[in-house]
Design brief:
Length: about 110
């Protein structure tokens, strides 16, 4: 089986969430995860449908940064993290930290 997770800046990219997810993966004997980039397509669709949903206002740059930092964070925890959404030109360093530019209270 394959585990996948969307990295939503300010929500799923927190150290606490990554710790918990890595712990869960280890508990079920799984040592890898595929991370997916957040795309805000639902926000436009919800607006067109007249649904009242909070706007996250996450930029593509913030989403890309959270994805790269998430891969590094999982790898530091011994989980083989990959993402097809990261360009091959981006080098993942173990020292990368999760972006702190988005805080839930700002959303």
């Amino acid at each position: 089986s394959r585990f996948r997770m969307v990295m939503v800046p300010g929500f799923t990219d927190t150290e606490r969430n990554i710790d918990a997810t890595a712990g869960f993966l280890r508990s079920v004997g799984h040592e890898s995860i595929e991370l997916l980039k957040y795309f805000g397509f639902y926000e436009e669709k919800a607006r067109r449908l007249g649904l009242s949903t909070p706007r996250l206002r996450i930029t593509p740059e913030q989403s890309q940064a959270a994805l790269a930092a998430g891969v590094a964070a999982f790898r530091r925890r011994g989980i083989a993290a990959t993402s097809v959404d990261l360009p091959s030109s981006i080098t993942i360093r173990a020292s990368m930290v999760l972006p702190s530019s988005i805080v839930r209270s700002e959303l």
